[in-house]
């Protein structure tokens, strides 16, 4: 386990979850850039990012090895502070709806803290699909330590 992994906490909150990742020696720009800059994202999440970082702009990540595309919309973006976007698998959007992810970064004396809230899809607050929340939890447990190493 790397020192970064020891600084990751993820809490399940109903049909959503919250993650907190300490990034010693990193800046807020480094941390949020992992979600907004194609080259930075590719280092920890194996996809090709296309993002129009204006409210209502497209947020799209194509995962060529999986043959899948995640599509969504930017809900809010404040450079070096916050990104909120929706997402859903392009092939499932009519069935599942979109989830919301809010990423915020906070400078600390020794680095930055990244907080991520992965909200449920509409309607999932009451009836999440079997394994839905667990799948998101496992995904973030796998990818956030890689983000820490990449930035």
UniProtKB/TrEMBL annotation:
Signal peptide positions are none
User: Which superkingdom heads the taxonomic lineage of this protein's source?
Assistant: Bacteria
The protein's matches in InterPro entries, at most eight in alphabetical order, are given as: ASHA1/2-like_C, START-like_dom_sf
The Activator of Hsp90 ATPase homologue 1/2-like C-terminal domain covers 34-148
Q: Which family does it belong to?
A: Belongs to the AHA1 family.
This one is known as SRPBCC domain-containing protein
Q: Which organism is it from?
A: Actinospica durhamensis
